[in-house]
Amino acid sequence: MRASVIAHRDYVIADIDNRIYGAFLEHLGRAIYTGIYEPDHPTADKNGMRGDVAQLVRDLNVPMVRYPGGNFVSAYNWEDGIGPKEQRPTRLDLAWHTSESNQVGIHEFADWCDTVGTDMMLAVNLGSRGLEEARNFVEYVNGPTGSYWGDLRKKNGRADPWDVKLWCLGNEMDGPWQIGHKTAEEYGRLAGETAKALRAFDKSLELIVCGSSHSNMPTYPEWERVVLEHTYESVDHISLHMYSSNHDKHTPNYLAHNVKLETYISTVASTIDYVKAKTRSKRKVTISFDEWNVWYHSHKQDRAILDGKHGWPHAPALLEDIYNFEDVLQVACCLNTFIRKSDVVKLACIAQLVNVIAPIMTEPGGAAWKQTTYYPFYFASLFGRGRALNLLVSSPVYESSLAGEVPYLDVSGVENEAEGTLTFFLVNRSGDEQLEVDLSLQGYADAGVVDHQIMVHEDLNAVNSAANPDNVRPQQGSGAKAEGGSLTVSLPPHSYQMVRLS
Ligand code: AHR
């Protein structure tokens, strides 16, 4: 099979906001406890944070981490996580049927973010709580000393405000599973009033209002219209979530997921435009895709805990999807979508970061290792920064029941002017045929290949583990040739490649 691509230097989608390579950490399962925090671990620092995990996170160059939830935040009291650790209460976590010891709270998380070189993106509880507690949390985190909350923060060891800019106004409020679930009208009113109060404190905050939890939600996309009509003037982003799964073990359908993702983003972008016009607004609200990933491998094994059959365990294994090679292709395709939609998607978070549907896994007291999906995220985060090119792609297609017509080739292109590089991320969705790709590089006549990475495996179900951490990993590619303004590259069946030119 053959596909062709035209990349023109002046044909640009947008400057990519680096924050599309964000991540998410929730008080859920072993994400925090025995994930990032394990005081008895041999690599733990003075704050009890695992050094091996911190290094793997640092290597991903994640610009910000969303915290503390997720469903967890909708019944969370942030005050439980401040003050002397021995006085912090253990609470029942209603979202995941577990116990929360509160040994990690905002101070510990903020210190960890400093250690790994990332910013905080915080969520307030608009499920079981409301405007007042949200306002207090924001003032505790960002307020000056000389005021009640700022002085309390100082007493607890931190005089300087953290100056966190990104604030999520609740989580998945459209979901009937959410504690404090609301209708679009109810939530829109509450979010609008909360945003008003937070803006009265600090106009420069970036506020994120909840959109849909999935494009299959019955309230989508009317939810977005109603919520935005209440909040358009006072928020900056609307959040979308979507996970993919392959329960039926049907790879062509599974790999069609990001076509559906792209339609979802386009529809919400149109809804934003509609509300902007209707409200005669001058603002441009954009999208924060703050939960995305593959999530299904662990569904069955989690049932007993979620159904309460184990009581209220503290930090049990939950949502521990072990990713396979097929998931590499999926994650790579989703990242391509975020690059291609970088004109409207300004923030995104892979959900999540450690142990819970995550690229990084740990053993309590033992090793930390990279899941298969670590690599496409790593390559995009490191080399997918710059300007997204508007590629003209011509590829053979197949028909999928999930998303209709799907091209075998999924590709994105990023030019980094400062570094003088041009990077392509390519996936061959076909499991049977090699794909020969001809890329015409217009305006890049002198470019030559400087790096070529390939991920391919004879077994779609191959995984990494503590015992075999390198089973699925990238290899140096060969055969990508750039000459006289054209690049040719062969994609083996079911493969992912990154080709960099300079
Ligand atoms: O990331 C796991 C869960 O998925 C989050 O808690 C929730 O927001 C979503 O449903």
From TrEMBL:
Keywords: Carbohydrate metabolism, Glycosidase, Hydrolase. InterPro entries: Alpha-L-AF_C, ASD1_cat, GH, Glyco_hydro_b. Residues 290-495 form the Alpha-L-arabinofuranosidase C-terminal domain. The keyword Cell membrane does not apply. The keyword ATP-binding does not apply. Gene3D superfamilies: Glycosidases, Golgi alpha-mannosidase II. Transmembrane segments: none annotated. It catalyses: Hydrolysis of terminal non-reducing alpha-L-arabinofuranoside residues in alpha-L-arabinosides. Residues 465-487 are annotated as: Disordered. Residues 465-478 have a biased composition (Polar residues). Its EC number is 3.2.1.55. Belongs to the glycosyl hydrolase 51 family. Homohexamer; trimer of dimers. This is non-reducing end alpha-L-arabinofuranosidase. It comes from Devosia albogilva. The lineage of its organism: Bacteria, Pseudomonadati, Pseudomonadota, Alphaproteobacteria, Hyphomicrobiales.
